[in-house]
Protein: Cobalt-zinc-cadmium efflux system protein
Organism: Aquamicrobium defluvii
Amino acid sequence: MAHSHDHDGHDHGTHDHGAHGHGPTDKRRVMIAACLTGGFMIAEALGGIFTNSLALLADAGHMLTDTLALSLAWYAFHLAERPATSRMSYGFGRVKTLVAYTNGIAIFVIALWIVYEAWRRFMEPPPVLGAPMLVIATLGLLVNIAGFLILHGGDRESLNMRGAILHVVGDLLGSVAAIAAALIILATGWNPIDPILSVLVAVIILSTAWRLMREAAHLLLEGTPETLDRDAIASDLRASVAGVSEVHHVHLWSLDGSKHMATLHARLDEGADPHVVVGAIKARLASEHGVEHATVETELDRCADGDGDHDQHHGHCGRDVAKQAHQH
């Protein structure tokens, strides 16, 4: 009694999830930012050693992880352009989400190191050369602003791109802190401001890194994207698509925060054309909810997966959905 319709003749192997949209330009933007960051990181590290400034060394250390992270982000975009294979049926788009999560961990580690080093230096503040520190930090700020502007024009729905932007924003804040520390040291000679402002930057970086890691982990665990409401989508399909009497077993997930996927069961009215209904459901999901790839199983009588007691958290097959339908 149940008819299964998978992608209207499309399968996962035919979709290249990373080769359209912002992909190629995002990839180029990330590579330019990686080269800028890596080039100045060497100069800033040498400057930090010369001036004995933790703020500069911390920013250089962050820039090192950023160079690696941006390079990894570039490689993720590169992998995402590959076509799907029989072993990787969704393609390589999720690599970008994995890299975003890894980037979050890297930012966390470097921020904790900055806090530790700042505490050690606050106990015994070393002398800092304010004037050279100010020059290097100002140059660093200009490089980071350039990197930020390059990345900011990319696709900010992509977690991978947001992770790359987060790294550069962390660098930008580090440069601002180093400039402020240099100015205060030049004006007052108070060296402890150097580790104090380093900690301030570390705290800001930690909070943003935590948000990035949490969102990436949510996607890796196949969580429903924040922009989608499963129950609202089920109700909308039931109300908007002719021939649909009930929608259940709805699962929503995302490959990288911007490419959303769905699977669902649709119970049809007597006499409804399954092919027409499936096409209408896919069109509605794409146009109204931003779900670009859906698998729809149609049913004419009982749900093939049972009455729904085992699935009450994932779609309410059977009587729970029927009750919800009457409420609408």
The longest helix spans residues 159-188. Strands lie at 2-5, 244-254, 260-268, 291-299. Residues 1-21, 308-316, 318-328 have pLDDT under 50 and may be disordered. The radius of gyration is 26 Å.
